[in-house]
Amino acid sequence: MSSLQTKDLTLAYGENTIINSLDIDIPEGEVTVLVGGNGCGKSTLLRSMARLLKPQEGGVILDGEAIAKLSTKDVAQKMAILPQSPVTPEGLTVLQLVKQGRYPYQSWFKQWSKEDEEAVESALEATNMQEFKERSVDSLSGGQRQRAWIAMTLAQDTDIILLDEPTTYLDMTYQIEILDLLFELNERDGRTVVMVLHDLNLAARYAHHIVALKDQSIYAQGRPEHVVTCQFVRDVFQMNCNVTSDPIFGTPMCIPHGRGRCILQQSG
């Protein structure tokens, strides 16, 4: 099982510091969700973990080694990333997309193999995309398209999967479908999943571990039931709320205060 950490990580765009001296140990074999207000650095942190953004200071440690010193192929064999709203080349089929997940294992000396074929078929099966494999990705629904991209990351066969807002622009049905799939992959294969989510209630439902960012650093981290409190929501999201227990899952459920219709039940 691969391990992922940050040590004294500082990230900036120009002179604008986004993350300052951050130390994180991502729990192995669990689902970790990054949460926080808009612009707090969730996606920036995820991009840095995937070596898509160079740190200003500090670094990311993958399996005990500085990720900056590892080859691209070594990183890609241990960790896969699904960026926010990925763009698919026009006309690319689901099968062609999923096969791209095997590129880290190709070389001049090792071309397409039976192992590659099995990995692709396994990824299609895990995401229930076998019947769509000859369809073009851009002809699919939002949920199907996201499953196709997740299949590509599964074909990459890594211990760690990073996902930047995998439910963005999806309706409620597809959001639950995608998060259920990721949760099942974690439970079945023990894969470490790290993702950015905006919906705090969904984060609390699916995460084993929550990392909340505020003011360039970690505000809180731990089990959802320990992190998600009224004080946490006020401090991180600047909103008053009630926090109760989800009646189905028992996880924290945030009910934000605000204006809206109030239906009063009258007796008699």
From TrEMBL:
It is a peripheral membrane protein. Its main location: membrane. SMART domains: AAA. The keyword ATP-binding applies. GO terms for biological process: iron ion transport. Residues 4-240 form the ABC transporter domain. GO terms for cellular component: plasma membrane. InterPro entries: AAA+_ATPase, ABC_transporter-like_ATP-bd, ABC_transporter-like_CS, P-loop_NTPase, Siderophore_ABC-ATPase. GO terms for molecular function: ATP binding; ATP hydrolysis activity. It holds the Pfam family ABC_tran. It comes from the Bacteria. This is ABC transporter. The lineage of its organism: Bacteria, Bacillati, Bacillota, Bacilli, Bacillales.
